[in-house]
Amino acid sequence: MSKTRRSIGALVMAVAAHAGVANAQSFPSRPLEMVVHTSAGGGTDILARTVGDILTRNKWITQPINISNRPGGGGSIAYTYIKNKRGDPHVIMAVASLTMLTVGLRPDMQLGPEHFIPIAFLAQDPQAVMVSADSPYKTFKEFVEAGKREPGKLVASIATPGGSGQLLVWLVERATGAKYKTVSFKAGSDAIMQVMGGHVTFTTENIGEALSAVEAKKLRVLAVSSGQRLSVVPDVPTLKELGYDIHFGTGRGFAMPAGVPKEAAAYFETQLEKVYKSAEWKEHAAKHLWENVWMGSAEYAKHLAFRRTQQLEFMQAVGLAPKP
């Protein structure tokens, strides 16, 4: 090869490399859409708005972040929307992990894990068994005894079929022998309002979403699913304290449509890790009683694969997935 041809080749490579850097530096090149599967006010919506605010306020992302609420269908409307955005690096989704697993395990949905890329996991949001302040049930023991005495009479309001609220009901039933009925709404905040309005007996949604009602003594908390007692209700026992091997919560994370460039996924993983390490996030997590847990993309994907097996057992038991 002549010296001239070698020089031209080197110049082309240099230009290409410079273009790659320029493209990386200009991403994102347009406003971002952050999709939420619940209506405004739900825990996943709060996650999206908080993270979006931290990202833009610190100028870690300079493009506007528009929150897109797409409730309904047990999460299927939002997840179908994300599936159809395949390859679009300007779309990201706030994830409640169990909802993602639930829609992915329903064969009629065709929303399996191959359609999404887990980006990051930031926290676990504890659930609680909560009744109205004027409920006759003062303790978890009384609540369980009622569920045994009159199976199916006590009704729970939940946000999403197959979500963490219904999972907690099932876990309590399996551990105690009690039986309850569930009714779903568009968001945890809606489910909580049903209890406050006296339309249902209890809810098993996130205590963080019910915090203002709990503090105003409009709701009574009978038990929490966190690993430790919570500061807002220090006298309320954990389910583990009561002798039940139940410790879990709603997983709070983010995902993107399948087919996006690896660089875009890595970019958002980096930005979300900044959020997780920020003082603003720590303050928010503490305020909403979230248990902080960080997982990057690879670890989050493994976590979801593990939980998928557990979720399938639950869904088969409650009739949301066919039994083998």
Model description:
This protein has 324 residues and is an alpha/beta fold. It has 2 domains: 30-125 and 249-318, Bordetella uptake gene, domain 1 (D-Maltodextrin-Binding Protein, domain 2, 3-Layer(aba) Sandwich); 128-224, 3-Layer(aba) Sandwich (D-Maltodextrin-Binding Protein, domain 2). 43% of the residues lie in helices and 19% in strands. The protein has a 6-stranded mixed sheet. The chain has a 5-stranded mixed sheet with strand order 7-6-8-5-9. The N and C termini lie far apart (65 Å).
Write the layout of secondary structure elements.
Layout: H1 3-26, E1 32-36, H2 43-57, E2 65-69, H3 76-83, E3 91-96, H4 97-105, E4 116-126, E5 128-132, H5 140-149, E6 155-158, H6 164-176, E7 181-184, H7 188-196, E8 202-203, H8 211-215, E9 219-224, E10 249-257, H9 262-277, H10 279-287, E11 291-295, H11 297-318
Parallel strand pairs: 1-2, 1-3, 6-7, 6-8
Antiparallel strand pairs: 3-10, 4-10, 4-11, 5-8, 5-9
Helix pairs in contact: 4-11
Record keyword descriptors for this entry.
324 residues, alpha/beta, D-Maltodextrin-Binding Protein, domain 2, 2 domains, six-stranded mixed β-sheet, five-stranded mixed β-sheet, 11 helices, 11 strands, globular, disordered N terminus
